[in-house]
Amino acid sequence: MKRTVVAIVVFLSTIFLFGSCAKKEEKKQGKVIGVSLLARAHIFYRDLEEGLKQEAAKEHYELIITSADFDLGKQIAQIEDFVTRKVDAIIVCPVDSKGIGPGIKKANEANIPVFTADIAAHEGNVVSHIASDNVAGGRLAGEYLGKILNGKGSVAIINHPMVTSVLDRVQGFKDALAKYPGITIVADVGGDGVRDKAMQVAADILQAHPKLDGIFGINDDSALGALDAARQFKRTNLVIIGYDATPPAVDAITKGSSLKADVIQYPTKIGITTIAKIKDHFAGVQVPKVVPVEVGIVDKDALVKNSTNTDK
Amino acid sequence: MTETSNKPFLVKFARDYGIGVALALEIVFFSLLSPYFFTADNLLNVSLQISITAIIAAGMTFVILTAGIDLSVGSVVALVGVIGTSLLKVDFPLPFAFALTILAGLLLGLCSGTVAGYFITKFSITPFIVTLALMTIWRGAAFMYTEGRPIWELPDAFNFLGSGRFVGIPIPTIIMVIVYLIAYVVLTRMRFGRYVYAVGGNIEAARLAGVKTHRVLIQVYMICGALSALSGLLLASRMSSGQPNAGVGYELDVIAATVVGGTSLSGGRGSVAGTFIGSVLIGVLRNGLNLMNVGSYVQQVVVGAVILLAVMLDQWRRK
Questions:
Q1: What number is the ipTM of this complex?
Q2: Tens of pLDDT, residues B218-236
Q3: B71 Cβ partners below 8 Å, 6+ apart?
Q4: Is B293 close to A159, i.e. CB distance below 8 A?
Q5: Across the interface, which of B48, B239, B291 has its CB nearest the CB of A196?
Q6: Is the pTM higher than 0.80?
Q7: Measured distance CA(A130)–CA(A275) in Å, rounded
Q8: What is the CATH code of the structural domain delimited by B36-318?
Q9: Domain range holding A48?
């Protein structure tokens, strides 16, 4: 029994291997781009991959898509394979911004241009980094809160100031609120970006500020933690804004909880933009070091509209 | 030690009640600085907040009294949280699903403790290494089990465990008090408690005196595991979801509370009463700093400094 299974697996994988090799040989004329995603299981990266494929098909680029599955060693090995195969460009979503350095340097030595998508690399030469515009995302959250509070009141931030993208989000949020002199930021505390810690600090904030009107959570776990605390103190008049529009947050928004809106990223657009920038680079056009991709904000109305659209 | 009587009264008092005095000072300090601190509402809030780590700290006290350590507690919290909540989604009548969740969760905690105790006693691996390994294993298992996503959309009734109140007092607070009362009785009034101190004081002497030291060691890790599991269930209920990243860093908070409470890392000395005060001290500190809107960078520094100060005070008291 066991032997049969092994035999079948070996047989299938051989066929698979030959099949994929054969396909590669026949369309080698176009440019070949190696892609190392952070993970394939996550819906964010599936959408990003979809964007890459869409745009690559248009340009007749061949994509070799691999996934590092959060394993840095695996990711560096994938880049090394791309270097050996002499691909024309490499796209990486680094597992670790610092740790990916050696892998990128290997590609640099082989003169293969490297692009990072979603997550930046701190070492090595990267032609361009394409990612969501976190400052704009924070600004959207601030503007939404400013409008819904009619430009008056006190708000708090559940922060996680150890992460660059979060610092950008908070910066954008504060920039937007600067236009509303009637709104003051009365608290700005760290919740480590996880729900349990965020819930604890949010509870303290609610204690210290009995008249608090709004909370901005720098990601959905922070916002949902704030929601847990708000429920604990029965503070139903609070407006909470989250970031990322993960399924639990979307659920809380559509059910009409205090979580009113969420900033949403467009990973498909990140994929499309990345290929577009690679095309520019191939054509000899100067590509900016950082390319921000637009983000949006969704509330209950937007979500309900969306779901009825997809149902059709 | 004859000079003791010459010292001013306040110094003597501080010396005899070290940690308690520190806590009292802290409470006075925050009461003066924040109008929201000394309110019934906020004190109940603090009791609710500390309950999760304080329950684990009671278990950790047993472990540290035997000169051991358990680093796996935070991961047990996460694993029990995700597995427990996933069982709520089984298509059973609600009361059965509930019982299943709680029983399975506690059993999981007991198992984790048994595994830790087994490796520590049978293979003589230091507790630090065994529980460090379990910490990453359980954390990984929690992520594998959930594929990194939280488990949510739980029945509303489950929220009662963590968010419910009985005569105005949060349920986790009540559970915490019960846990500490039991732990206190076990350590001070029961034979098992004396064995724990004996094993921690001098394991060889305890063995020669006829104490089944291996058994005691495995049992303290089981207690710590079960109490971590209990906290995991309470936390999952409070968040009405099972989060695979819950409880990160709890081991350090819990160890800090235990040590601040006067339990010696080299074993044999300490008490759950001390641990309780230690938990309150750190919980009140975090709460007070948040009420005063102290930034998170500064908070980390302050909490570290207070831990050092409290232990220093305790050492000074013992001289």
A1: 0.72
A2: 999 999 999 999 999 999 9
A3: B128, B131, B132, B134, B135, B251
A4: no
A5: B239
A6: no
A7: 10
A8: 1.10.3470
A9: 29-126
